[in-house]
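Quick one, probably user error.
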């Protein structure tokens, strides 16, 4: 059972001085990789909580997602950790672009400290996000990567952005959650699974079942 109630627009005082990781995405569907990243972030940055921001519609993906309520239900079924909270707060904020969501969250939760969490795939495509430079000015980043972390960091396109400071971390600590910093956390074990792969496998199995029935 969670030690926190899920975040909403009227309970921001409860999050005063909390260190909160934000794992955003469509979660279409959620999977063990999302849980793995969340647990690693909790430990690596000594966070108080991780919020799963289930997006109403990912603005950079063309795939039509399952209904939001269905994805929220799947996330809640998957999560069994007191510090991981599933949220549809982007619906209440009226946002789907990460930069806009972060700006509004910071206004709503002025005394909370946020960090954006992602795996390598999102880190490698971050330079394609809407307002990505402005986003880096608003919130620090934590990317989970595997060895050799330094060469992966060097090869990441947004690494070319000169205003960002990059730090590779290999042990947990309450590192400062200041904007303009990207933390790269090396993981010995990664969960090699993606929502895209799950959808493709489900479609393949459905096609096989249809052919068998025919």
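Nope, works fine. Designed sequence:
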């Amino acid at each position: 059972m969670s030690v926190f109630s899920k975040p909403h627009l009227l309970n921001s005082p409860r999050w005063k001085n909390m260190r909160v990781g934000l794992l955003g995405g469509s979660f279409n569907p959620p999977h063990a990789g999302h849980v793995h990243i969340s647990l690693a972030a909790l430990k690596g940055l000594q966070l108080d909580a991780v919020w799963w921001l289930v997006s109403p519609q990912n603005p950079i993906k063309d795939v039509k997602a399952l209904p939001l309520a269905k994805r929220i239900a799947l996330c809640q079924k998957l999560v069994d950790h007191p510090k991981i909270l599933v949220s549809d707060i982007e619906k209440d904020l009226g946002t789907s672009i990460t930069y806009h969501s972060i700006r509004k969250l910071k206004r709503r939760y002025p005394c909370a400290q946020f960090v954006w969490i992602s795996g390598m795939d999102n880190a490698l495509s971050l330079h394609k996000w809407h307002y990505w430079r402005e986003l880096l000015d608003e919130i620090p980043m934590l990317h989970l990567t595997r060895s050799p972390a330094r060469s992966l960091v060097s090869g990441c396109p947004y690494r070319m952005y000169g205003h960002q400071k990059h730090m590779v971390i290999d042990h947990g600590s309450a590192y400062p959650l200041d904007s303009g910093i990207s933390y790269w956390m090396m993981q010995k074990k990664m969960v090699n699974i993606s929502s895209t792969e799950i959808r493709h496998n489900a479609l393949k199995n459905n096609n096989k079942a249809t052919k068998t029935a025919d």
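Residues 195-213 form the longest helix (19 residues).
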